[in-house]
Protein 1
Amino acid sequence: MKKKLLIAALVLGGLGYLGYSYVIKTIVGLTKDFEPYTFERVLEDSVMNARYGLIDQDDPSDYGYDAVEEVAFYSSLDNLELSGWYVNSASSSKQTVIIVHGRTSNRLKTMKYLELFKETGLDTVFNFFIPDMRNSGKSTPASTYMGYKFAEDIHGAVSYLKAKGQEEFVIYGFSMGALATSTLLHRDDLPKSDNSIIKVILESPLSDAKGNIKISADEMGLPNFIFENAYAAFSEEMNNYGEQMAMGIQLKNVDIPILIIQSNDDAKTPAALTKKQLKQLAGKSNIQSWFMDGPEHVRIYTTEEFKGEYTRRVEEFLR
């Protein structure tokens, strides 16, 4: 990304307005798109296997779940075809936990949290849906817009599960999947009038889209006027929603229980941004948070020092 911006900056210096337009288009493109993380890309890369925590486990059945169904479902609004696992672990239950991965990821990475549910016995309380969001895993390649379109994918998952007879949902979102979850709760064009979403967990959340991108822009020495214009162009492609992609705005009028988990040493989605957003939500008794020192981005559960406490807090929150 830095190399592309350097080239763009050189073009800007040499071509004036045309260079400026090129820089804006480049930044918008880098923000809304990313290279797909397919199953093949992950499974054939030993380093990525380790980072995803796969080892010899690449299917929910490897965690002791027998009733696993590979399904196709469709995103809301644009009807994009998506893929996922429906794990019918508690056949009499009408409650499903939807586990939503982040940007450079797919459902293979979030599958390991099935171990937590098995260990705590929550697998007898909930069924599970582990989808590939657009541009990930086995789902259709498409622009994500920093989670704006992921929100439509989650909404489509809820609609699909309702058709299967499920009635209540916990959304468990990671990184950009967490931003997508708060975006879903806020967007008026994604109807949620039946109150079927009962709880939310946001882990290592991308809590402020503009703030997060601004940090990267500053590190690259990108002039502020270029950043502001690029973000405005990005926002325009999302029906001018860009300035609302921040937790402090999106969760202000949400009253369901929310658990936020984040490391103070998270370099990809800085905890300082999340804490700033939480200050805007001060006084909301439905939101609880847990910050700790040490783990990297989305590595809290797999860090042995914190695994027990992580498990305890999630179980307590969901019970």
Protein 2
Amino acid sequence: MTSSPARPLTSLGIVVPLHNEEENVRPLVDELLETIRGLEVPAVAWLVDDGSTDLTWKRIEERLDAEPQLLCALRHPCRRGQSAALLSGALAARSSHLATLDGDLQNDPRDLLRMLPHLAEADVVLGRRRERFDPRNRAWVSRLANRIRRAVLRDPGTDSGCSLRVFPRDAFLRLPAFDGMHRFLPALFHSAGLSICEVEVGHRPRRSGRTKYSNLGRLLRTVPDLLGVLWMSRRAIRTDGVTCVEPRRQQRERPLSQAERD
């Protein structure tokens, strides 16, 4: 951690990207509602359907009518990627902070109840999975990618593949937006001068559906992004810690009155 957080938590928007997760929508919403009701601040869950071709959007619509105060939804006309879905949710939310998680039920939304108190000590709170339930080859590639990313970017996050994160909305919207930015959020926040801490969270096997990324596809996308983020981090302009002093107002010059001249 680098400094004390300056942004109080007054409201929370929980942004969840989904793509072809029709069987996971109902249990996901149940867990989100349970989490929201356990919070001490107002919260809304934003379900972002990223161009699903199955019944994901229909399942979302079915739940919206039942909980219109706690659930909102956005729909991309075609698949634009997880980063675009996060950005759409962030722009639509009007909360002081955002929380993110995957829509495949491998993240437990209730872990947010343990993460939020840590905003008293850091600007950004990252989840770190205690145990992985991904296929062995995917977990191995993820650990290797984490080591390379940390070595190159000096990233304080140890588990970039964990989507459970909490951060100030305004800070997120000031970050450079690009396809794949969600993989580098810890490094981007760090280069922007935000303090960061990690909290252990759970991880669950995928119940239904299938992963949207292959190891090769992830590698081909991540390597050029890594170089781009390295360049941006080295060229980033820092504005944190600036002190502003208002100049004293000077009286306006005016001509002397006759009495003052006498």
